[in-house]
Amino acid sequence: MSSTRSRDGPIASSTMTLVLGGMAAYYVFHASDRLTTITPTPKDPDGAWDIHANKTVIVCGSDCWLVIGYSGLAYLDDKPTDAFIASVLAGGAARVVREVTAESSAVSTAPIPATEKIIKRSGLTLDQIDHYEVNEAFASVPLSWAKQFDADVDRLNPRGGAIALGHPLGASGARLMTTMLNSLEQSGGRFGLQTMCEAGGMANATIIEKL
Questions:
Q1: What percent of the chain has pLDDT over 90?
Q2: Interhelix angle for 111-122 vs 140-149, to 10°?
Q3: DSSP line for 124-176
Q4: How many helices (H) and strands (E) does the chain have?
């Protein structure tokens, strides 16, 4: 495995080979200062494709969260630092998508109905929320989300999105939450909204309160 670190992102201008269970996949990462010179590279029979600067960088990562109720905190003689206000799941294709169809395009916009649903459930307005953490699976995801809600972009992924920080598959949800809670603590914010798209045109959303 070879990689080059850069201020532009986790891995830049390098090829990394991953071997899992005897299956190899090849990823080519490009630095953002070369974006204007990049041309799309079609997927080849060996499974190689270009990961451009408008897509996330897949990185290694792991995380663990403990969600506990007030009775558990009392047992541990501890005080809560954060509280879940609401959590929702939205979207979903009418059937399993086996081809590129209109349904599969909902993956990138699914955080929009998820946000509408959780705003209604929580009773809050978007203006009352101090931090928006919208997973940057692709650059278009947070951009379309912000356009739909006319959101304050200064509150949107203020610590950087997945293009800059990476997308640790299987741990991205915890990474988003950790980033958001740390940001709220340091900025003195109260409410945070986290949302991310999923396969099949679904998305989840969570609103937390910093206590």
A1: 34
A2: 40
A3: --GGG-SEEEE--SBTHHHHHHHHHHT--GGGBSTT--HHHH-B-TTTHHHHH
A4: 5, 7
How far apart are the C-alpha atoms of 109 and 103, rounded to whole Å? 11
Q: Which residue has the higher pLDDT, 91 or 96?
A: 91
Residue 42: the pLDDT is 52
- The pLDDT of residue 104 is above 80: no
| Residue 83, Cβ density class (10 Å: 0-12 exposed, 13-18 middle, ≥19 buried) | exposed
Strand order in the sheet with 14-20: 14-20, 23-29, 48-51
The residues, ordered by sequence, that sit 6+ positions from 101 with a Cβ below 8 Å of its Cβ are none
Q: Collapse the DSSP code of 90 into the 3-class scheme (helix H, G, I; strand E, B; otherwise coil) and give the result.
A: strand
Residue for token pair 């990476």: 166
Number of C-beta neighbours around residue 104 at 10 A: 15
Q: Which one is the CATH code of 70-210: 1.25.40.10, 3.40.630.30, 3.40.47.10, 3.30.230.10?
A: 3.40.47.10
pLDDT in tens, 7-45: 444 433 333 333 333 333 333 343 445 555 655 555 544
Q: What is the token pair recorded at 73? A: 């905190």
Taken as a whole, the chain contains a residue count of 211
pLDDT digit string, tens, across residues 161-210? 988 888 888 888 899 999 999 999 999 999 999 999 887 778 999 999 99
Domain ranges of the chain: 14-51, 70-210
pTM score, whole prediction: 0.71
